Amino acid sequence: xxxxxxxxxxxxxxxxxxxxxxxxxxxxxxxxxxxxxxxxxxxxxxxxxxxxxxxxxxxxxxxxxxxxxxx
Length: 71
Description:
Layout: E1 5-9, H1 12-21, H2 31-40, H3 46-49, E2 52-56, H4 62-68
Parallel strand pairs: 1-2
C-alpha cells in the first residue's frame, strides 16, 4: 500500500476513564465531546480499510505492536 492508516482503539469505558482522569490538561475534551466525536465519525472506505493498522491501546504492548508493523 502507498500509505498506512493507523487507528488507535479503546473501549468507551476506558476512553471515558482517561478523560475523567485528566488534570491540569490543555485539552478541552470532556465525555460529551467524546460522544459528539463518535457520533460524527465517518467510517473508512473499503479502499482505506485495506490500509489500516489497528492498535488496541488497552493492550499492554500497544507500542510494540505498532512498531512491529513497520519493521
